[in-house]
Amino acid sequence: MKLMTNKTQAFTLVEMILAIGVAALVLLAVNAVLFSTLHLREVTSDVVDAATPVDQAMSFLRRDLECVVTPTNGTDKVLSGSFKVGTVNSPGVAEPVAAEIYTATGALSQNAPWADIQRVTYELKNSTDGSGRRDLYRSVMRNLLSTTTPEVTDQLMLSGVENIRFTCYDGSQWLTAWDTTDVTSVNTNLPLAVRVEIQLTGDSQRRLEPVQLVVPIDSVGRTNMVLSSSSGS
C-alpha cells in the first residue's frame, strides 16, 4: 500500500533575492523618470510664468502703436496729439519718458466717460521693493481737455527692466528721436514703423537677450498740397 504525500512547491531563497533585486531596479527607473518629469514641469512652469508679463507688455505696446492717432500738424491738437520718441518731458509724469503717443485704445466706463483717444507714455521708474532695479510703467491720461495738471494713471508692465528703447523708421533709416511738434523737424507725420527693444535685468553671471518688437504704422499723413493733373485739364 502506497502512502500519498502532498508536496507544495515554493520559491527558493535565490529566486526571492532575484525578484526583489529586479523589482528594486524597476522602482529606481520609475523613480528617476518621475523626478525628471516633475523637474521638467517645474522648469517649464517657471519659463511660462516669466514669459507671461513680457507677452502682456508686448501686447499693450503693439495695440497702442497700431492704434496711434495721426497728428494734426500745425493746428490745435484737440482729441488728437503728438507723437514723440526719445527723451520726452511729458506733463503729469515726473521723470522723462521714452515715448509719448496718442492712441485710440481707451474704453468708455462709468469712471472714464471720455473719448477713446488717450495719451500713453512708457517710462522706467525705480522699483518700490528696494531692490534698486527699475520697472517699466505705462502711464495713461484720459481727460485730454483738462485745463489743470492732467491726472495720470500708472500701470506696472514689467519688473526688472534695465532699458527700453524706441526707434522710428522714416523709410530709409531708424531714428532714435521723433517729434511731430518740433518746428525744425522734417518728420511731422508718423513713422512707417516703430521698433521697441526691452533689455531685462539679468544676474551677475549672464546677460539676458533683449526683447524686440517691430510694429508697422498704417497711417496717411494729412497735406494741404493740391495735386496737379498731368493731362493739363
Written account of the structure:
- With 233 residues, this protein is an alpha+beta fold.
- It has one helix and ten strands.
- It has one helix at 13-66, and strands at 83-88, 97-103, 118-126, 134-141, 153-158, 161-169, 174-175, 178-179, 193-200, 211-216.
- The relative contact order is 0.13.
- The model has no long low-confidence stretch (mean pLDDT 80).
Topology overview:
Elements: H1 13-66, E1 83-88, E2 97-103, E3 118-126, E4 134-141, E5 153-158, E6 161-169, E7 174-175, E8 178-179, E9 193-200, E10 211-216
Antiparallel strand pairs: 1-2, 1-8, 2-3, 3-4, 4-5, 6-7, 6-9, 9-10
Question: Summary?
Answer:
This protein is α+β, with helices and mostly antiparallel strands and 233 residues long. 23% of the residues lie in helices and 27% in strands.
Number of domains: 1
Round the mean pLDDT to the nearest integer and report it.
Answer: 80
Main sheet: strand order? 5-4-3-2-1-8
The parts where pLDDT drops under 50 for at least 5 residues are none
Oligomer classification: single chain
Number of strands: 10
β-strand percent reads 25-35%
Gross morphology is elongated
Number of helices: 1
- How far apart the termini lie comes to 138 Å
Query: From the helix content, strand content and strand pairing, which structural class follows?
Result: alpha+beta
Keywords:
six-stranded antiparallel sheet, 10 strands, alpha+beta, 233 residues, 23% helix
